[in-house]
Amino acid sequence: MQTAWHWLTFTAHLLSTCTAQSFSPVADAFARSRIAPDVLDTPPNMILAAAFGSHPVQLGNELTPTDVINQPVLVWSYLLPATRDPPLFTLIELDLDAPTATNTSFRSVLHWLVYNIPNMDLARGTIQMPYTGSKPDANTGLHRYALLLFRQPARLTLPPVGNPNNPAARIGFDLRSFIQRYNLGQPVAGNFYVAQADAYSTLFWMLAGTPK
């Protein structure tokens, strides 16, 4: 865990220096992975530092469903302005490749949505959709999982959603429409990883039914 935390803080510091430059390694990684334009018009320029225990998220590295069962530790303190009123953020995690990368009829599957997060205090945000880890089904290949952070223009009020334990409540999340409806603009930071089925996710869907 200590190694992952050191990677988080080092990466956050390193990539935050790119904002004053014309080239952003974060935006470039999002473009090469086609997260932008698949679900975003404009990619983030800043890193959203993230780690699942001892497993850091590194702009497209592969993690296993077993690695990401529990929600990650996130760092974005370098984005906070020196103002009296704390800014509010929305955090979203999506699976872009469900049920498969060549059949994205479930796009996007909402894995996590927290809004009205003051500063970097995730625990004080409002949970719209609780975290669930990546669980691609067997023989569906690699899935892209994007973590996106938006700075809100104002405090949000979102309508209630269905039962988060029901896959239907998570399938078909339209990120572009959500951004437009709540005037969120370009994500201020992001990160992503890829994952494919392992023994844990395969067993999960054998017991639960239709994968997401």
Q: What is this entry, summarized?
A:
The chain has helices at residues 2-16, 25-32, 35-38, 175-181, 199-208, and strands at residues 46-47, 49-52, 55-56, 61-62, 73-75, 88-95, 109-118, 126-129, 143-151, 189-195. The protein has a single domain (2-208), classed as PEBP-like (Phosphatidylethanolamine-binding Protein), CATH 3.90.280.
Keywords:
globular, 5 helices, single chain, 24% strand, 212 residues, three-stranded antiparallel sheet, Phosphatidylethanolamine-binding Protein, seven-stranded mixed sheet, alpha+beta
H/E order of the elements? HHHEEEEEEEEEHEH
CATH architecture: Alpha-Beta Complex
> Ranges with pLDDT <50 over ≥5 residues?
none
- Specify the helix fraction band: 10-25%
For the biggest sheet, the summary is:
7 strands, mixed
Portion in strands: 15-25%
Give the distance, in angstroms, between the N- and C-terminal Cα atoms.
29 Å
Q: The CATH topology, please?
A: Phosphatidylethanolamine-binding Protein
Number of strands: 10
**What's the helix count?**
5
* CATH superfamily heading: PEBP-like
Structural class: alpha+beta
Round the Cα radius of gyration to an integer and report it: 16 Å
Return the domain count: 1
Any idea what the shape is? globular
CATH class: Alpha Beta
